[in-house]
Predict the structure.
Amino acid sequence: MTPTEIHQRLLEVFGPDDILGLEAELIDPVIVVRPGALRAVATHLRDAPELAMDFLRLLTGLDRPDAFEVVYHLFSYPKRHSVGLRARLDREAPTVDSVWDIWRTAEWHERETWDLVGITFTGHPDLRRLMMPDDWVGHPLRKDYQKPSVYHSIPTTRPKPSSQAPTHVFPPAEHVAKAEVEGEWMQVNMGPHHPATHGVINFLLETDGEIIRRARPDVGYLHRGLEKLAEITPYGNTMPYTDRVDYLGSMFTNHGWAMAVEKLVNVQVPPRAEYCRVIASELNRIASHQIATGALAMDIGAYTPFIHWLRERETINDIMEIVCGARLTYNYMRVGGVARDIKQPTLDRILTWLDHFEPMIDEFDRLISNNEIFIKRLANVSTISAEEAVSFGLVGPNLRASGVDWDIRRDEPYSVYGDLEFKVIVGQGLRGSVGDAYDRFVCRVLEIRESVKILRQACLNIPEGEVQGKVPRDLKPTANEVYARVEGARGENGFYIVADGQKQPYRVRYRTGSFTGMSIIEHLSPGLMVADLVALIGSLDVVAPEVDR
Amino acid sequence: MNNLQGLADYAIRAWFSVPDPARWPYTWLVYLGFILLAGLIAVGFAAGFAGPMSFIERRIAGRMMSRIGPNRVGPQGIFQFIADGIKSLLKEDIVPAEADRPLFLLAPYLVFTGMFGTFVALPFAAHVIAADLDVGILWLLAIPSLVVVGLLMAGWGSNSKWAVFGGVRSAAQLVSYEIPSAFALLSVVLFAGTLSTQGIIAAQGPWPWEWFIFRNPLLFVTFFIFFISALAEGNRAPFDLPEAESELVSGYNVEYSGMRFVFFFFAEWANLWVMSALATTAFLGGWQVPGMPAVEIAAMTGWRFVGWEALSFLIFALKTSVLVFVVVQLRWTLPRLRVDQLMTTCWKYLVPLSLITLTGNLVLLALVPERGVVDWMMRGLMVLIAAALALRYLQRVRANYLADRENYRKMEGKELWYPPYRLP
């Protein structure tokens, strides 16, 4: 159904008192709903069989001059249609009903919205701050936010180091609490510095010996305020910042941002540039999946596969260095094209490397994928059913491993993916049940093989031509809203931009795969062993900066 | 110990002109000095195995991971372990403020003592053994139990939850796996008829078909039971749960620094040698030189004696090194088991299996006369199977090397830069 049809249907069911209108002029249309009716509308959207909006892509809090807004981007896997919902809230007391039990992924989204925008969600079970410390004052993404001058007697600004000696005094270190055994269980901090957390994340484990009662992720250590930064940076200049959203998959965040802005300012991308984007993205996907699968093997205790993958990844880094001058934060794409062309010698080198690389995947499989201990450690561990995966908003390989046949590259083709032949890998329950940790691992290994196929086709079929389209000098899109998404290594990388006619966006929201991947861990953790939790984190391929942004 | 006492008595008579040391009031002082001296020599001797073992393991690991490994200190980096040792000695010895101080400080020494005590009863060559104890095997099974105490103390004394995890894991693991390994050695003791390590070697012969491992199919199985249990007892992968880096950060030694930290790893690397040497002694014929019985070596004098001793030591070292290499290779190939899987492996598979092999060995011992027709047939069969396996292994090595070389030539356009027999 189109958004208009969905709007019509909602009008029939709920009437014009609750459904206030359809903003059809937006690139991604949004239905405006009365806040009081939001829960009813949301339940209807999810449960009505012909609507079946089972996936909440993104929940955004917006600070408008006259009102606060909550925007829900919804999607239906069975029906393949999408629409936005918007609720306008009172500027003085922004309150709205929580939808956490309708879409479980809303739990963390609402916590983040409360934290950063200050919208209260009534009925939320655990409305604590997510990114900022629990005792932080204020909501940083509000437009009228004033940074507190002091936090825990540490000033948040400082004089020039040369001019003055430091004046502040650090508070005395709190006495480190001893092992607090309350009843039958013990609380353990796993992180923020722990080899298995793949970045700076803290897990508060409540364990009974080796068996976990509950694992609560405590994120926000890497919160760099990239969404706020995007609000004060011109559209084109945000590109290097998007590298930092996900340092293992910069190409996807580059691509998603470029696509979002191109939709806003209506720029055409030349075909060669699209091919360049696909080649770079797929190389990046291989590199990212290598880190994911290799690090999972390392978490399970096998170091050698990881090092072997790093050796192969080194060639990708070399190629990336030739292509865009950087080995990690690529900053390769531009609005309307790419920064540099991929020349023929580089294409030849990629093809030679692919010939070398494909047998290496077999070697990796022999070394670790078919290892009996490895399979025993992962099979049937932390199985995620398809319903759970969709409800918690898992995307990418994690979603496909649970048996949902969905890949944005194939189902909503962007760039030139429509012209390329490749298979979408879906979890089969190879060694255990569908959606277990081993499936997630195997999905990634098989996706590496598919990426190799895509790369071969793209390198051979790349057309001649320009790599940069015609783009106005000043990117000043008119007031509009867009949600663009690409299939990143960790799933859907979504970019929601609210433009207001300025050189900078009014509000930007990044939707990342790791954020929702992280939010399911608490739900899956009861009953796992400590070693299983490590496998779970590794198999979800959670990258810390992508969670925190 | 008697040798040491005799030596001390001799010294007292010679240096202090005391005719009867038993009545001399300062005898105990000299004894103490000699015990300390012997301890120093023993530690130096054992460290002489642990240090190079760390270097060898790192180089093999490097080769397996297609990197180089330490190659800066000395020719090919062979003095790396000395540099590491000096560095650790110079480092600050940090004791956490909340730690249980005596336990924390004592724990490394217990681990160290437990592991290095085993060197006493290890027969390195025909006559190179610190003490050929009558209860050698019992000693070798009992003294490493100190390690469990040490690891538990380290885990508890650190007052860190991760260290406690590691300590408790190691206690459960080591205590469990002592059972199958003891049963496996018991089979050998049955066949040898003695608990003395030299006696066990003497009960075997120098040729492969005279070794216990190829004596009969059940002993062949027993060898692997022992090998797996020994891996687990030594915290080696795939059983390195007490120090699982990715789960427990570093396990029981997470709060240690400087030399105390090194003591744990000393013990680990020494154990690598100890477990391989024990397997060699019990199953692979020890130091026996083909064509030269131990009695004849003992009868020799002068340089001939030293030469034959050295040869027997070389043979022992060679056999042990092969096993060490296998252990290292396993460590850098296999992932780690989970705790419950570890316990399952031990209690549900290894313990029953070791009991079965023990009973079967008893039956075979009673029914099959030694050096009868059936005995020789079994030995021949086992040797043939082993030879086939070894040949298959070498074939795989060759195939891998050739594929490797081809791949390298294709990618880099030049020849592989190392021959297969040489470390890079």
Remarks:
- DSSP finds 18 helices and 18 strands in chain A.
- The two ends of chain A are 33 Å apart (CA to CA).
- The CA atoms of residues 46 and 361 of chain A lie 41 Å apart.
- Chain A has a mean pLDDT of 84.
